[in-house]
Amino acid sequence: MGNIGFLLPLKVFVVVVCNFVTTLSAESPSTTTDQLALLALKAHVTNDPQNLLATNWTSATSVCNWIGVTCGSHRQTVTALDLSHMGLIGTIPPHLGNLSFLSKLDIPHNHFHGSLPMELANLSRLKYINFAGNNFTGEIPSWFDSFIQLQSLFLYHNNFSGIIPSSLGSLSNLEKLILYDNDLKGQIPIAFGNLSNLKRLYLDNNQLSGQFPMALFKCKELEFLSLTHNVLEGSVPQEIGNLTRLRNLYLDGNNLTGQIPLALFECRELEILLLSNNALEGSIPQEIGNLTRLRLLYLDHNNLTGIVPQEIANLTRLSYLYLFENILTGQLPLSLFKCQQLGYLSLSHNALEGSVPQEIENLTKLSYLYLYENNLTGEIPSTIASLPFLEYLDLSFNNLTGQLPALPLSLRGVTVAHNNLIGEISSSVCNMSSLQYYLTLAKNNFHGIIPQCLGNLSNSVKFVDLNMNKFHGKIPGDFHKTCLLRSFSINHNQLEGSLPRSLVNCSELELLDAGNNNLNDPFPNWLRNLDLKVLVLRGNGFYGQLDDFEGRFSFSNLRIIDLSHNDFNGHLPTKFLENLHGMRSGSENKGDLEYMMYIGTDQVEYFYESLVITTKGLEMRFERILTALTIIDFSNNRFNGHIPVMLGELHTLIALNLSHNSLMGPIPSLLGNLSALESLDLSSNKLEGKIPVELVNLIFLEVLNLSWNNLTGLIPQGKQLDTFTNDSYIGNLGLCGLPLSKECSNQRNLEPQPTKFDEDGDAVNWKFSILMGYGCGLVCGLSMGYIVFATGKPWWLVRIIERGQQKYVIRGKIRRSGGRK
To answer: Is 602 inside a domain boundary?
Structure first.
């Protein structure tokens, strides 16, 4: 009892002393220093959209109770700062370097900017730094080597520039180094070979160069390595096999060459392997079958040859297989259809042959199947209908035959264009209620009547392309009241009757191509309030005048209108032309090209529409419609009267064809204002007077046809006009001067007046304009594919287009998927 009586006062004394120490500690100088450092940070925040710091970081409360602040349990000092995703705008003050006990600094996904203050080097206890998703600039500081305990460094998605400091190689405890999405240059430091504990290294989306960094092969703990989208070159070394713990390897989007190293297949823990968008060659090694854990395999956009190896059957966990844009040959291996986890399969743009096996039905989880642009033959397997989750099917540009089988009802987009399919289209296609993106049956041998129920799909599907088949009868007439169609193409069929008036329900319609049929109807002025950008009615029996409609003309967004080869008459529609605001404004810079048709889904990013256009008597198919492609073609009708002067106000016009009509009067001098014009065809009319000297200003003009009119006088000389031959002027008996052999009797008096430019300046501008013309022509050429349906080729268009590879009608650009963190 005596001992108990003695211990009780002792316990009370200890409690009192502890409380005193705690109170004393709360008021210690280090706490005050931390508070001042954080208040300095608050003062450097210029925008706090949620008022989190403004209302919470006050001297009235303990710093340890402030939002985002964590203090140590023993010392009341700040050990962690977490301001992530607060939307803060400001800079980092040097005072933050006074948080001497800080081990975690976490401020990602704000809008901090400027450079990092050197005083942060004082934070030697830091183990975790996350500055990701801000706007920091300057070089990554070399003094980061002061953080000797650092385990994780996240600097991704900023604007850091310069080289990666080799001093980072001294951070021996570093496990995660994430620097992607910056503007870093130079080579990957050799010192990185010292990072023996490094598990994750992401350097993608920078401008790193040089050979594949050999030093990284010393980092044997590496599990995730991403060097995607840099400018690395050379081959992938065999030493890659040293990284046996690798789970994710991203090397896509570089300039890597050589063959896929066999040693890579010693990395048997690999789950994701991306080697796409390089220049790799050789075959796909059969050792690929060793990587039994693979879920994603991207080898697309290389120069790989040979067959798809049978050993791919071992990849039973594979969900994504992208082998497109290579030179693979042989048949689709039956072993491929043992990969029953496949959800995404693309073998498009190769040289595969043979048929699509019935065993496709084994891939019951397949969502995306892309086999376009190969040499596949035979019929589409009927078993494809049994794929319950198939959403996108592209079998276009092959040699498939037979009829179109029943398709999965789950499809959201389907294209079988450019094959040799036959037969009628079953009305069962209308049961595909999930179809919401595209239905493309173009360039086959389908015949019969277009199912009338197709109009019911218009409340979901956005692109319908039935071009170049043998459909007859009438166009389906019942387009849904909530029609979502953006593009409707029925060119080159045998359709008759009139355009269905229910098309007016399609409020989002941008492209209507009904050319080359047997339609008989007045001009569809009732479509005037739609947002049409392309209207093609060529090669039909449309009739009447264009300027006698009641009500306001609209069609203000049209960029391509082709009414050629019809039976329109009367004067050219001045009111109609005045309303073409889409041709008055827009990009006149030929280097700034965008595509008119766009569609976005999880995997299909772009969908390009095609269009048949006639220029200089040659029918051509543009496979991608550029917003810069502005065309008026009213040729081969019975228009009369004068050419409207206001045509000279359509400044973005690329091609103007008014040939084979009965137009009269002079050529308006204001046509010289069409600074983007590349093709002008006014042939086979009754035009008279002199050729306006202002046409000399058309520096991009590559086609000029004024033949078979009643023009007189001296042919203007200079710039592009000097490049044209007799053919441009033949049939005008009153013309004289070069390039014709006929000389003018009073050449001095007939000589056109010079332009407003002084002579020297004009010469300089001429040279500059020619250079610009060639440069812009190159960009246009690389953007347009074509199919020629006549034997002759216009030199001007061939010169532009053949600079690039032929592109095709429909292309689903497949985006990488799968996380990297």
So the answer is: yes
